[in-house]
Amino acid sequence: MTLKIGVVGTGAIGREHIDRVTNKLAGAKIVALTDVFLDACKQVNEQFDLNATIYPTDTELIASDVDAIFVTSFGGAHAETVLQAVNAGKFVFCEKPLATTAEDCKRIIEAEMKHGSRLVQVGFMRRYDAGYKQLKRAMENHLIGTPLMLKCAHRNPTVAENYTTDMAVTDTLIHEIDCLHWLLEDDYKNVQAYFPRQTSHARVYLQDPQIFMLETKKGVVISVEVFVNCVYGYDIQCEIIGEEGIIKLPEVPSITVRKEEQLSQAILNDWKERFVAAYDVEIQDFIDCVRKSKKLTGPSSWDGYIASVTADACVKAQTSGQKEPIILQDKPAFYA
Ligand code: NAI
Ligand code: ISE
């Protein structure tokens, strides 16, 4: 059976996912669209030759005969759409963040538990990236013994004018928040934020770069540099230092050039290119799980909740300058 997908939010990443489902992946079809700007849906229908039904609201789209919903709208709108879809018993792939408050994440968790099986996957695509998967395997095989410290960086060449200091957490650091606790199989305990000297490439109201020091329950100390006007490229770094050795996220493969007395390698400029393969694998995995077993295995609503609670503490740490505790509820057996 071909999975019938409805998309809520036909902006940048919505279109990326529509393109991959339509032109690259197998087993699914985009049959329904909605957006607060309905013209955007018309454009998408034409651009990808979809002939999808355009619904004026997410409520009507969810009530149609779609099997699954992609939630790719603005982050603040995710929770209400996801809740409606879960209450209707529909599968959901929700781009990060699952919701912008921990309370809303809890409402989604409660609705999903009431339904009785997992319906929601959150778009933390790094778990599907080949390099991060190698790190995960190395950790599972205890290649470097007990992990002690992590040094990570999330660098963008530049960001849009509406990017604010807290978005360094809610838009950017959120990816590290998810994938680092997954790599370590450990929960966060506290976080402190540091503001180094500001780059002259950032707008005056944006603190850039920022450094977050996270401590886990097992005592691992993690530093993540978020530097979103680094100018030189899109660069993701992750190094895990253990008792027996060090492992590092591989660089994106690229030819080395020897020319004019220089030895060089290209650095990517765009997050879409850096994680293109991970998005493909992530969405194919969602489609396959729903079609073949109706059992989702990707990042869950609980992972969305962890990210939300941790992000709240990170944002608080930005203004307090203090170590802020990260306090999670006990994990329900449902998400074990
Ligand atoms: P965008 O602004 O390009 O697109 C969002 C679309 O949603 C717009 O067309 C807007 O009109 C529509 N929209 C807003 N509120 C709506 C509502 N209540 N109902 C229906 N449509 C609504 O934003 P972008 O970059 O596509 O981001 C969308 C989401 O995807 C965000 O949550 C963002 O954080 C996430 N994202 C995830 C990435 C990843 O690497 N996993 C990368 C980029 C974005
Ligand atoms: C963007 O919203 C994303 O989610 C990308 O994955 C991230 O790397 C980028 O920094 C964000 O702006």
UniProtKB/TrEMBL annotation:
Gfo/Idh/MocA-like oxidoreductase C-terminal domain location: 136-323
Domain Gfo/Idh/MocA-like oxidoreductase N-terminal residue range list: 3-124
GO biological process, one term: inositol catabolic process
The protein's annotated pathway: Polyol metabolism; myo-inositol degradation into acetyl-CoA; acetyl-CoA from myo-inositol: step 1/7
Keywords: NAD, Oxidoreductase
GO molecular function: inositol 2-dehydrogenase (NAD+) activity; nucleotide binding
Reactions performed catalytically: myo-inositol + NAD(+) = scyllo-inosose + NADH + H(+); 1D-chiro-inositol + NAD(+) = scyllo-inosine + NADH + H(+)
This enzyme's EC code(s): 1.1.1.18, 1.1.1.369
Family to which the UniProt record says this protein belongs: Belongs to the Gfo/Idh/MocA family.
Subunit structure: Homotetramer.
Function description: Involved in the oxidation of myo-inositol (MI) and D-chiro-inositol (DCI) to 2-keto-myo-inositol (2KMI or 2-inosose) and 1-keto-D-chiro-inositol (1KDCI), respectively.
Protein name as annotated: Inositol 2-dehydrogenase/D-chiro-inositol 3-dehydrogenase
Organism whose genome encodes this protein: Listeria fleischmannii FSL S10-1203
Source species taxonomy: Bacteria, Bacillati, Bacillota, Bacilli, Bacillales
Gene that specifies this protein: iolG
